[in-house]
Write a structure and sequence with these properties.
Helix content: 25-40%
Order of helices and strands: EHEHHEEEHEHEEHHHEHEEHEEEEHHHE
Number of helices: 13
Low-confidence stretches: 414-431
Mean pLDDT: 92
CATH topology of the largest domain: Rossmann fold
Largest sheet: 9 strands, mixed
């Protein structure tokens, strides 16, 4: 029987990670604390939704800026698994003013808060989610930001695997591509078992993601490569760039990366989550004649002459797309603007009438329970689903975590390479 794993959920949103893990096994995954705070909003809608379903390990820090939570709070939580969907930001670092206190990360970058939690709790596992452009950021120094993250995990004695996963390739109803990052302490039984394999074997067959989401044993169009991270993270920030592929592994600063292909594609068609009974759909979701005309323009092909800020004239062109979304295939990626009169919004035709997806249908696109966000304003229901991850993917990853953790010792101990004790490889980031 699987052991209990204490989970901390950062940047929790409406609880997608927690819901997915509890669907895997609510007796194993016990969320002992969660944090959700939206700095730009007076009304904390996502937090209200989260607490309507879950407790946060209720304390004064659950709905406050994570940067204000003291280190001691994390140290006492006894975390086994840290999860979170953090924003994609600029991860550059610089030498501190004195030159003696190590490095400084950019203010407000939430990945450094993840690092701070790790330094003060040292969980066995870390599972993170982000937009797939993280692997190529910033545009002027491709791959730098992700390399800084990898180096941070390296210096905290973690092995890292990553994979860009399209939910519609693994049973989902939405073409939602997100990069997932799974890090595990290098003193765990799982880590020691993985280091017996070559890095390409981990990516294609033996690793955490390969076990959960099978791929072909050869890369797409031969796209694979490997390299070493520079020892100095400042050198990475200033000069390193690399074309990271959609999957990879990093062990002690050496990484292998490949563009993997799904072994057997399996999607759910959009029609499987649609409400076909018109009497159960509020009339406000059906398009007016004016909206139909507007969407015909927005989704149609166009060439428009525009003038740039410096007075340069140019032609903006945009290809056409189908007037309505195909019900027999998976849905397109849902954005936070879903439900507005916007080219990216889904428009479906049911029984001859065109309409928006309802908030309930959007919840289903991310495999949340029906009416998960009920009680929030419609605009926020759409917004939170546009920000959310696909719950079923987390459930599958949770099942794999349970299997690998069964081989770990019951009583976790502090090892000599615990970064809290061993400062020889420590990266000092001050804020």
């Amino acid at each position: 029987m699987s052991k209990t794993l204490n989970v901390v959920e950062l940047f929790a949103g409406v609880g997608g990670f927690r819901l997915g893990l509890e669907k895997a096994n609510s007796d194993v995954f016990k969320t002992v604390w969660a944090n959700q705070w939206e700095p730009s909003r007076k009304v904390q809608h996502a937090y209200e939704c989260y607490t309507s379903h879950f407790k946060t390990g209720v304390d004064e820090y659950s709905n406050k800026d994570i940067a204000t939570v003291p280190n001691e709070h994390f140290a006492k939580l006894d975390i086994d698994l840290l999860v979170g969907g953090f924003p994609c930001q600029d991860y550059s670092v610089a030498r501190s003013l004195s030159g003696e206190k190590g490095l400084e990360g950019k203010k407000g970058v939430l990945f450094w808060e993840i690092k701070r939690v790790l330094e003060n709790s040292y969980p066995k596992y870390v599972l993170l989610e982000n937009v797939d452009r993280l692997l190529k950021s910033p545009s002027k120094q491709r791959g730098r930001d992700f390399a800084v993250m990898l180096a941070t995990f390296r210096d905290l004695n973690y092995i890292v695997e990553w994979r860009v996963i399209n939910a519609a390739e693994y049973g989902g109803v939405q073409k939602r591509r997100r990069v997932f990052i799974f890090a595990y302490r290098d003193d765990t039984v799982f880590a020691k078992s993985q280091t017996k394999f070559e890095k390409d074997e981990i990516v294609y067959k033996e690793g955490f993601f390969a076990s959960t989401f099978p791929v072909k044993l050869e890369p797409y169009k031969g796209r694979e490569s490997e390299d070493d991270l520079p020892d100095d993270i400042l050198e990475i920030s200033n000069n390193f760039k690399f074309g990271f592929h959609t999957a990879g592994v990093m062990i002690d600063g050496k990484f292998f990366t490949a563009h993997t292909e799904v072994l057997i594609e399996d999607f759910k068609p959009l029609k499987d989550i649609i409400i076909f009974d018109e009497t159960k759909v509020d009339n406000k979701y059906f398009l007016t004649d004016a909206q139909i005309e507007k969407f015909a323009y927005l989704r149609g092909p166009k060439k428009i002459e525009r003038t740039s800020a410096n007075g340069h004239k140019y032609i903006f062109s945009e290809g056409g797309m189908s007037p309505t979304d195909e019900l027999d295939g998976p849905g397109r990626t849902m954005l936070t603007s879903e439900g507005t009169v916007n080219r990216s919004t889904h428009i479906i035709e049911v029984n001859g009438r065109k309409r928006f997806l309802t908030p309930l249908e959007c919840e289903r696109m991310n495999s949340f329970d029906d009416n998960w966000t009920e009680g929030l304003p419609d605009r926020m229901r759409y917004f939170t689903m546009g920000n959310a991850l696909v719950v079923d993917l987390v459930t599958k990853m949770g099942q794999t975590i349970m299997k690998l953790d069964n081989n770990e010792p019951i009583n976790d101990t502090v090892y000599l390479n615990d970064p809290v004790l061993d400062t020889s490889k420590q990266l000092e980031l001050t804020f």
